[in-house]
Structures are given as C-alpha cells and as structure tokens.
C-alpha cells in the first residue's frame, strides 16, 4: 500500500506550524494516495522518523516522501535524504520514493502577483520590488531564486525587481531594504517568498517598522495556501512515483 509523507520545514512559531499542517489537510483530498501523514524536519514533532513509522503502522509498503520546501537547498539535498538512509535500515521491506520540492514554477510567481493585488494598492509602473527569500549557501538555490526574479519581471513588466535573503546569502534583506528605501521610489513592495508565517516573516515587519516613513513600503502576505501550490505538490508526487523518485538519495539505483 502506498503512502505520502509530507516533510515540512518546522518552526518555533506555533502559527507557522499550524499553517503548514492546515495546508496539507486541505491538500490531502486531492492526492490519490490512501495513506498520508505529515512531519517536520526540525523544531517540532512528529519527526521524519515518527512520520515514517506512522505510515508503516497503517500498512504502507511504499512511501513517497515529499519535501514541502520551496527550493532544493541543503535540507532537500542532504538532511532529508540522510533520514531516509536511516529509515531504509529500520524499515527494510519498505520502498521509498523521494520527490522534488516545489522548485521554480511560473505558478509561484502568479501567487506573488496575487498577494500584491490582495493589498488593495494599485501596482504602479515605476514600482520597486524586493523579493525576500530564506537564504541558502547552495549555489543552485541562489540560481533558482534569480530565475524566480526573472520570471516575475517578465510577467509584471516591472523593471526594478530585486532579491534579498534573510540569512546565508547576499544581498542581506536589511541592507537591500535600506538601499531601496533610500531611493524613495513611488512604491516599494516587499514580497516574502516564504510559505508560512514564522520568525522570518516577523523579521520583515520589524525591519520595515524601523525605517523612517515605513508607510511608503507595502508588505504582502506570505505565499500561504493556494490551489496552484496544491497542484504542484500533486505533480511532484506523481513524478516521484513514476520515476522511482531517487533524487538526492544515495545507494538507490
């Protein structure tokens, strides 16, 4: 019997954890797999090991592990695969498939634009935009984020579109925010490329409020629950199931 284990990042902020779990609960009815469980990579329970055990307890003989992450950084490439390597010894009779994370996708850019429209502010042609990511030392993640920026530029026809990170990569959000604010654009949009509310999204609010005249800055909501993300998840699960889903997992042929 097949199962899906959704691996969320985890957060110290309860609201962020609750949002992730609520998203998955809304997604489950659209995923054609009989056993579906959720877990966290860090900072919360159930752990990956506990999540896998729950699937096996319900009769799973095949588990598709979906990293509910935006991009393929070290968590997706190293941390989760390491846990799966351990699981292969603990559950030797279970076949594991490992799906890709959400990744670069045009629909994700559509959600950013939707979040802008939800603020009620018109998007003026000369607007400056700052897309903010979590950050990673992985070069592929940096390249992927640049691809997202380029997609956004292409879709919106806005020219002053910038990217920044909250940690582990440059430019740092605080510095880029100050640089753009100093230019005094007609509008400065700050778009969190984050799935859910958490400590990082609170950091954005704090930095914006620390500036003089923060009212000229428009902060949108996080990506949050969206049917388009649900569809990407379904696609990733199906891809892993059909190909054997061996991305990043060693010792698999």
From TrEMBL:
SUPFAM superfamilies associated with the record: Chelatase
UniProt keyword annotation of Transmembrane present: no
Entry coiled-coil feature ranges: none
GO function term, MF aspect, one: lyase activity
UniProt keyword list: Lyase, Metal-binding
Domain of life: Bacteria
Protein name listed in UniProt: Sirohydrochlorin chelatase
Record organism: Bacillus aerolatus
């Amino acid at each position: 019997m097949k199962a899906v284990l959704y691996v969320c990042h985890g957060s110290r902020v309860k609201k962020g954890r609750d949002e992730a779990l609520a998203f998955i609960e809304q997604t489950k009815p659209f995923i054609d797999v009989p056993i579906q469980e959720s877990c966290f990579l860090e900072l919360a329970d159930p752990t990956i090991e506990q999540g896998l055990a729950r699937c096996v307890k319900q009769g799973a003989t095949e588990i598709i592990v979906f990293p509910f992450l935006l991009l393929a950084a070290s968590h997706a490439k190293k941390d989760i695969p390491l846990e799966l390597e351990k699981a292969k010894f603990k559950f030797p009779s279970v076949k594991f498939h490992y799906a890709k994370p959400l990744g670069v996708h045009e629909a994700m850019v559509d959600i950013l634009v939707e979040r802008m429209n939800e603020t009620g502010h018109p998007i003026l042609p000369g607007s400056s935009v700052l897309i903010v990511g979590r950050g990673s030392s992985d070069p592929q993640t940096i390249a992927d984020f640049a691809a997202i920026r380029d997609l956004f530029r292409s879709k919106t026809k806005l020219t002053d579109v910038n990217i920044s990170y909250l940690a582990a990569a440059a430019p740092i959000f605080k510095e880029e925010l100050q640089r753009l604010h100093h230019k005094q654009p007609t509008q400065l949009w700050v778009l969190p490329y984050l799935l859910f509310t958490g400590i990082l999204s609170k950091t954005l609010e704090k930095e914006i409020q620390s500036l003089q005249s923060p009212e000229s800055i428009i902060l949108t909501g996080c990506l949050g629950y969206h049917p388009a993300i649900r569809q990407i998840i379904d696609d990733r699960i199906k891809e892993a199931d059909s190909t054997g889903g061996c991305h990043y997992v060693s010792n698999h042929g």
